[in-house]
Amino acid sequence: MAKQVAKILDVPFSTLGFRETIADMVERIESGQKTHVVTANPEIVMLAREHQGFRSIVEQAYVVPDGIGIVYAAKWTNQPIYERVTGVELLEALMAEANQYGWNVYLLGASPEVIELAATKLQARYPQARLVGYRNGYFKEEEEEQIVQEIAETRPHLLFVALGAPKQDNWLVKYRERLNASLMMGVGGSFDVISGKVKRAPEVWQKLHLEWFYRLASEPSRWKRQLAIPRFVVTVLKEKWSSRS
């Protein structure tokens, strides 16, 4: 399946819908192709815009539209992105495939309590997936060598890393050649949601495309991060208008 790309503020997004994305990723894993997935919302796009090093990582990754802001931006700029591919849903869908194919899965990141709970819940939900290891994200730089070796030995088909953006993607790229992972993906706060520590927005909020507002109301400390959303909107519209003139 050829992956078509649409650019939003120079970030190359896959234009595949959710089910097509899963089918494409399964094909890549089964054919032995290595893939680095970045789930990008407006905050990630603005990070890539402001940091050259992160932008070069994103330009070489398989970027999916995690955030309704990306879908709206595509609409405003006449680009063929019609559906969100959110990180936590993508993780669950890939786990369902791991359950079917008996893939190896490794989880890295979050707090000790959260990662243990997330690992227990995922293993219970997807018993045929082989959870070959997990480790919390509170490690020192001198421990990284041992962690990389441990992951490499398990040869995971799926490697999910929750260290926050852009740290998780920088870490994956730094060790990519040594991790022996088929598909590696930064998953941000997904383990918090899966463990039950953080509640995802109710379905009605998701359908109204107000999940970002629900999260802000639930965690007011996120307000600084959420400022990326209006900055993203203004930047997209500015570029749209300047391209017309």
UniProtKB/TrEMBL annotation:
Functional note: Catalyzes the conversion of GlcNAc-PP-undecaprenol into ManNAc-GlcNAc-PP-undecaprenol, the first committed lipid intermediate in the de novo synthesis of teichoic acid.
Protein name: N-acetylglucosaminyldiphosphoundecaprenol N-acetyl-beta-D-mannosaminyltransferase
GO biological process, one term: teichoic acid biosynthetic process
Source organism (scientific name): Brevibacillus reuszeri
Keyword flag Glycosyltransferase: yes
Pfam families: Glyco_tran_WecG
Family: Belongs to the glycosyltransferase 26 family. TagA/TarA subfamily.
Annotated metabolic or biological route of this protein: Cell wall biogenesis; teichoic acid biosynthesis
Alphabetized UniProt keyword annotations: Cell wall biogenesis/degradation, Glycosyltransferase, Teichoic acid biosynthesis, Transferase
Catalyzed reaction equations: UDP-N-acetyl-alpha-D-mannosamine + N-acetyl-alpha-D-glucosaminyl-di-trans,octa-cis-undecaprenyl diphosphate = N-acetyl-beta-D-mannosaminyl-(1->4)-N-acetyl-alpha-D-glucosaminyl di-trans,octa-cis-undecaprenyl diphosphate + UDP + H(+)
EC id: 2.4.1.187
HAMAP family the record matches: TagA_TarA
PANTHER family reported in the protein's UniProt record: PTHR34136, UDP-N-ACETYL-D-MANNOSAMINURONIC ACID TRANSFERASE
GO MF annotation, one: N-acetylglucosaminyldiphosphoundecaprenol N-acetyl-beta-D-mannosaminyltransferase activity
